Amino acid sequence: MTTRRTALVTGSVQGIGLAIARRLARQGNNVVLTGFGAEEDEAAISRQLERDHGVEAMFHPADLASTGDIEALVAAARKRFGTVDILVNNAAAPRRPVTVLEMGVEEWEQTLAINLNAPFHLVRAFLPQMLDNGWGRIVNVSSVFGVVGTANRAGYVTTKHGLIGFTRAVAAETMGSGVTSNAVCPGLTMTPRLEKEAALIAETQGVSPEEAEKLLARRLVAERFLSAESTASAVGYFCSDDAGDTTGVALPVDGGQSAVR
User: Fold this and answer.
1) pTM of structure
2) pLDDT at residue number 1
3) Active-site pick, 59, 156, 166, 238
4) What is the predicted pLDDT for the residue at 222?
5) What are the TM regions of this chain, as residue ranges (predicted)?
6) Is 156 a catalytic residue?
7) 45-51: long-range contacts at Cβ-Cβ below 8 A with a sequence spacing of 24 or more?
8) Fold exhibited by the domain 6-188+227-255
């Protein structure tokens, strides 16, 4: 009997992270979810994954800006499943459009902590057992803005570029071990977070929510938002046995935006 693998997906109670969790559960993996939300909602998501896909799922409310919470998350995942075979670093700090001069030090440091430090801590925690097992998958969710720059997003752009560098460094260190390290770089995807950004644009510019969404979409080559499932499909491939020879890749899932920008 094949032992079921376990995937830990950070920031996985909504948007891209939830789509990734569902994809990995569909592929037969147990799932550890993290994020912020009502406890009953997270329990419902876990039950749905178990019911729909015949896997086990658990939720942990770790604040990934806290090393203590990260340690507690690692301990809880190990207690429940013994090992984590697949690590998807998806969580990202809240962001708002501000210039470098407007961005506060505390906001900058929180962005670094969640977007870059947390993946480092989680890789350090789970990589040794992956190496011992001769199999592991690490996927870091970067962004189209990890490939190109944009104004008024210094913290986000900096950390998402850094996450790709971290991805490649881990890939270089684990070549031939059975462990792979890759990144996906989604373009603008209509998620609850982007809905909040559209609401902020509507408020600050005095336009309707629908017009604010159109203004956001104009940033894109195709002038449309991407689906969370597109990114989840790419992650699903990276986490499969078929991707054993694919490592160190930063794959844009952006509708061509990075190709022509």
Assistant:
1) 0.90
2) 37
3) 156
4) 59
5) none
6) yes
7) 45/13, 45/18, 45/21, 49/21, 49/22, 49/25
8) Rossmann fold (3.40.50)
